[in-house]
Amino acid sequence: MKENTKNNIDTSINDNIEKEAVFGIVPITKSKRQYGFLDAFLVLSGYCIATWSYTQGSYLTTLVGFKQLLIGAFLGAILMLAIYQLPVILSVRYGIDIWIWLKAVFGHNGIKIMTVVIILINFPWYAVCADLFASSMSNLLDLGNIHIPEYCHTLLGLLCVILGTFIAYKGVGAITWTTRILVPLLILVGAVVIYIGFTNVPAEVIWEYVPKDTGYENNIIPYVISIEANFAFVITLVGGMAEIPRLAKTERGGFWAGVLGQGLTGSFFVVIGAVMAIAMEHVTGQFVDDPTLMLATLATPALALCSLLLVGFANVGTQAVGSYIYAVMIKSSFHKASYKLLLAILACYVGGLCIWGKIIDYFGSFLTIGACIYAPLAALLFMDFFLVRKQKLSLRAAYGLKGHDAYRYTRGFNLVGLICVVAGVFMSLAVYNPLSGEIHCKPLFYLTPTGCGFLGTGLLYFLLNQIPVIKAYTLRDREDITV
Amino acid sequence: MNTKYEKLLTEEIESKIQEMESPSYEYPNRFSKKDYIFTAVVILLCLAGVIGGAFIV
User: Fold this and answer.
1) DSSP helix/strand/coil, A248
2) Exposed, middle or buried, A166 (CB in 10 Å: 0-12/13-18/19+)?
3) What 3-state class would DSSP assign to A439?
4) B residues 1-57 near A, CB within 8 Å?
5) Which ipTM value was assigned to this complex?
6) Global pTM?
């Protein structure tokens, strides 16, 4: 009896997720649009803040002074966002996710490969999240004079993954509630961090901050790396950039909500992380890039206790929302896979990264490696929408409706799009090695590896599509365009 | 796609596409020429700021 009830619940969760994954892709027509600019901006602001923003802020203080950090975090972020998010207007126009349009770029099977690749490079963010949870719990225990051995850090990280996965397993209801709690929680943590930062150090200390040793003789190199970090940080949103804008009432509102949600709100939280790192260095004389240690050190014990608990819960919530979103994303490409199995695979992947334990040490490398893939993806979408397909898509072919096979290409793969992605990755790596930090081509490095990958891939895709035989291959949908 | 929702989904997508194909369907307000110009100005200002930032100590 008990077993039957459990099986029924499992089936119900799986059914609901299946409905969400399958029906979530249907075009949203104008009468169903919910968001004006302000609504979309607020929702996207919530989507763009997470505790890892503090890790990004701390990382930037190792490279540049506070003024340059502000320029990179706001102007650098908005520059990249305003360019790569421009195709979001297609999502508003047709009420579809960019992943539907990308079926034209990669083919119906090619898009499955890209989905898996994107998840592989994006999910390490959740190992950052688990690491922050472990740090917050370790620091909480330290406050209570309970000192735990090093290996417990890994176990606490795994606990975050397990708790987050469990909430995600409970399905969309649990996730809705988690989101409702998570966003105010993150804003509250941000407010606490600002208060602690500015009560511990005079404002001019923060304003005049410059790092003592960046490890580079030439100041321009760390500045370019910081701009790259900002480009890489914001371009990670490319996969999910259309989820909210496709519900927007105007193309202008949908576009600017995305740009400003990350470019202003998201960047503000990056700057808060930087303020905290600078305050920590000023007070203790030591550079620490762990925001939870900063909270434990700089705040009064009671405030530290509360804020560390908030950080802990926020990370579990972020883990849960991430597991849910990505499991649904995979399920929309691989319909037969069970939701439970997908959650387990994601948990094992992020759990493995926790056990490896070096994701924070390789934070900059991880950012740039991710951007090596995201930049070509964003470039292809941009070029395909504006200059190749000229804002026209066969919706029936994109959805794979019977008799509409324009996007089947070569056994489901658009070889042109896939070759361009691979070429784009090599272009980024040819400029800069994100693991060793070695610069291979200084003139192109000034464009940043992400910028090079974006420009190079876009140009290659555009030029290839000027060759008649390739143009005919890519634009086989022209007879099937109806909207 | 081999799920039990396949037929329903196809019908739903077809109906939405037909709705958009209808001459009476009103698309959301388009990104206008002014919007493109404004966006280009924002991009150029940010680019100038980022380049200028390299010379700030």
Assistant:
1) strand
2) middle
3) strand
4) 1-3, 5, 9-10, 12-14, 16-17, 19-21, 25-32, 35, 39, 42-43, 45-47, 49-50, 52-54, 56-57
5) 0.94
6) 0.89
